[in-house]
Specification:
Layout lengths: L1 H20 L8 H24 L7 H25 L3 H25 L13 H6 L5 H50 L8 H47 L6 H43 L9 H44 L5 H45 L5 H49 L11 H8 L2 E5 L2 E4 H33 L3 H26 L11 H28 L7 E4 L2 E8 L3 E6 L4 E5 L2 H4 L2 E3 L6 E10 L5 H14 L10 E7 L4 E10 L5 H19 L15 H14 L1
Antiparallel strand pairs: 1-2, 3-4, 3-7, 4-5, 5-6, 8-10, 9-10
């Protein structure tokens, strides 16, 4: 049973992934059929047990109605009956509870019994209708893909619901069997039941629950089978039009024109939204002036008005943002349709296809993150609405204008969900779908590309004459273009063979010996050089070119060694020292000679560091012995950051501390352990000085990016809450002549 449950979850997970990214031909084939078979098998196994358990019960509509009436009569006399039975108060409570549950069970069963069940028909054969589709276009194909995806997502919910109902049915059967066993043992002279009448009602309630679960499973199974049949029908229709798809220029122009019309509507809506935002900001400024220095969190007429207008500003800010995003998505969609047209008609080059594929993949990931962010904002808004409603309910004696202002703030937050978040939920999935189609079509084109080889215009004789040209000769040998070419090819092959052999040894060390990456890299490079030299000598021997053929290069090599080998050997020796002393390893974050980044590779001569700007910096190994090296992640990958903030002396220090702590705790990249903290550092010359201490994980976050995000957030929150960040200032006191004379006279008198 456990294996089947895990298999079902795996199938659901795969189906969910397919719903977003996979091709429709993957839907409703193996996965959906397997789900259908698994659930059908579970239902078949339970059918006998259910029928056996319910064999003695009358569950027709008339019988159920009669039993409900009987239970109603029992309920009226239950108090007197239990008094005559001598029930204790606890036993009375239990009996009344079971009687109530039994009545509710029959009522639910009766209600579901009267719900008509749709008859599941076989999926229609669309062969005839497909024959009437003369020129199916790419819009029709996209529409079918969307429809298949939509129905498949409904299957996910249905499968989870079916599984829960099947599990409930199994529990009900177990409960009924246990109650029946106790009753049978009592009837056969075993241990007597303490409350036989209550026990019989409890057994009947368990059987009604079994019957109700059976009806629910049957109803949901019918809906599930109907959706499977619909997917199969759509699947056949989709396959039937693929070979006849067209994408004329007129269709491209029509799609772009529709997008342009929508863009014009969005631009008009944007102008209106910006005017509303300006008006809302002016109202908020006036409300802030009326509030003065009062605390926003204390509900008064002024604070309620400020709260309502602040929520209205937030609404229009987010409305402007969603409109900007929709305009960008529509502009992108126009370009995507143009790119799809080029791909469909094979008008894109290989480089363009690669670029389209990579860009669409990156864009899909960005859009998914944007959608996740919108959903997170929705959750945050719902929490705020709930908190504000609780606060409003707790203070029932508030004046009407205060209640009205708070309610307006709640309504504006609800409007953000309805008008902003829901627009993201509608527009972003459509954009993801369009990018997914571009990605898949680019992939299809890449697999169909064939590299065309051009035949040289030279004749065979000319080529052979060139290849046999003698370059130089010596005692018993001659070097031709052909021999040198073969030697170079063999030499290059030896390079790849050496690379494969050394990498094989490296993999064996990592898997079998469990050696460190740094040590494995060192052995791999030494082995590579040994194999390379060996294969190079073998290559020269194969083409019968002796080493003396390269004697003329000896002088040049000797001069090169004299000038260059000193630094080379210095770096080689330094490299081995770095490898074996291990001051750092691959993927560590280090800083040396002003270069900071992640160690990508430790070579025999140099080490590669990828900086935070994405640049690969190659440093000679001697730098790491001659300079100070800071290893940020040798023992820990956490780093503490400090963010300093100054606020006006008019601000409430405790409120500022709470706001800053909420902001730093709300950032996703800030670690929860160690916990961040806010320190009231000092009374500065110009401001109250606060310092935020928080920790980040170096390999996942950038300290500069995190601090920048929080500064933006602090500015926005301070602006909303009316907290000022003051400019540097100086007070100058001028002492007049009369004051100077009086001071000198007082000094003389004291003397």
């Amino acid at each position: 049973m456990r294996k089947k449950f895990l298999l079902t979850l795996l199938i659901l997970a795969l189906t969910s992934c397919i719903a977003y990214g996979a091709e429709p031909q993957d839907l409703a084939n193996d996965y959906v059929t397997q789900m259908q078979n698994e659930i059908s098998a579970d239902i078949s196994k339970l059918r006998t047990s259910v029928e056996t358990e319910l064999s003695g019960m009358k569950l027709t509509a008339r019988d159920v109605y009669t039993r409900i009436s009987e239970l109603s009569d029992l309920t009226k006399t239950v108090s007197d009956d239990m008094a005559s039975w001598g029930y204790t108060p606890e036993q009375r409570e239990l009996h009344e509870q079971i009687l109530s549950e039994l009545s509710a069970g029959y009522a639910a069963y009766s209600s579901l019994l009267h719900v008509p069940t749709d008859k599941i028909e076989a999926a229609k054969d669309d062969t005839a209708s497909l024959a009437n589709i003369v020129s199916p276009d790419i819009n029709m194909s996209d529409s079918l893909r969307r429809e298949i995806t939509k129905v498949s997502r409904g299957l996910d919910v249905q499968v989870f619901y079916l599984q829960s109902k099947l599990n409930k049915l199994k529990l009900d059967l177990t409960e009924a069997a246990n109650l029946q066993k106790k009753l049978k043992e009592a009837q056969e002279g075993g241990e007597g039941l303490e409350l036989p009448k209550t026990h019989i009602l409890d057994l009947e309630s368990a059987r009604v629950s079994v019957a109700l679960s059976r009806l629910q499973v049957r109803s949901q199974w019918a809906a599930f089978a109907k959706n499977v049949a619909e997917i199969q029908r759509l699947r056949r229709k989709f396959e039937g039009i693929q070979d006849k798809l067209i994408f004329p220029k007129e269709l491209l122009d029509s799609n772009i024109e529709k997008l342009q019309t929508r863009l014009n509507e969005l631009n008009e809506e944007m102008n209106t939204a910006r005017k509303s935002l300006d008006s809302a900001n002016l109202s908020l400024i006036r409300a802030r002036a009326m509030l003065g220095s009062a605390d926003v969190n204390i509900l008064t007429n002024s604070s309620a008005t400020y709260m309502a207008r602040s929520a209205r500003v937030s609404y229009w800010e987010q409305m402007v943002a969603v409109l900007e995003d929709e305009i960008e998505l529509n502009q992108e969609a126009q370009q995507v349709w143009k790119d799809r047209y080029k791909l469909f008609h094979d008008k894109a080059s290989g480089d363009e296809i690669w670029a389209l594929r990579n860009n669409s993949q990156t864009r899909m990931q960005e859009l998914q993150r944007q959608l996740d962010g919108a959903r997170a904002r929705e959750s945050d808004l719902l929490r705020r609405i709930e908190s504000t409603q609780e606060k409003l309910s707790a203070e029932k004696e508030l004046a009407g204008i205060i209640q009205q202002g708070v309610q307006q703030a709640i309504d504006n937050q609800r409007k953000i969900i309805a008008d902003v978040i829901n627009r993201y939920e509608s527009s972003i999935p459509s954009a993801i779908f369009l990018q997914q189609r571009l990605y898949n079509e680019a992939n299809d084109n890449l697999s169909a590309l064939r590299l065309a080889e051009k035949v040289s215009s030279f004749s065979k004789e000319t080529i052979m004459g060139f290849l046999n040209t003698e370059l130089w000769q010596g005692e018993g040998y001659s070097v031709t273009v052909w021999k040198l070419t073969v030697a170079i090819l063999v030499f290059l092959s030896s390079f790849f063979l050496s690379s494969w052999g050394s990498n094989w040894i490296k993999r064996r060390m990592l898997r079998r010996v469990k050696a460190s990456v740094t040590a494995a890299n060192a052995v791999q490079r030494i082995t590579f050089y040994i194999l390379w030299v060996a294969f190079a000598l073998i290559a020269l021997n194969i083409v019968q070119i002796p080493l003396t053929a390269f004697a003329f290069m000896g002088g040049a090599i000797a001069v090169g060694l004299g000038f260059g080998m000193q630094n080379i050997f210095n770096n080689l020796i330094s490299g081995f020292i770095v490898i074996f002393s291990r001051p750092f390893k691959v993927h560590d974050i280090v800083e040396v000679s002003g270069v900071q980044g992640t160690v990508e590779d430790i070579g025999s001569r140099s080490t590669t560091i990828k900086t935070w700007d994405g640049l690969d910096v190659v440093l000679p190994n001697r730098y790491f012995l001659e300079n100070s090296v800071t290893n940020w992640t040798k023992s820990d990958i956490k780093k503490r950051e400090i963010l300093k903030v100054g606020v006006s002396y008019d601000a409430d220090s405790r409120e500022v501390e709470k706001i800053l702590l909420d902001i730093v705790n709300g950032h996703s990249s800030v670690l929860k352990n160690p916990a961040p903290s806010v320190i009231f550092k000092n009374f500065g010359d110009n401001a109250l000085e606060f310092e935020i201490y928080y920790w980040i994980e170096l390999k996942k976050s950038s300290g500069m990016k995190v601090s920048s995000d929080m500064r933006h957030h602090i500015m926005a929150v301070f602006k909303r809450e009316g907290i000022n960040i003051p400019y540097p200032q100086m007070d100058i006191h001028i002492i007049g002549d009369s004051e100077s004379e009086s001071e000198s006279e007082s000094k003389n008198e004291s003397a």
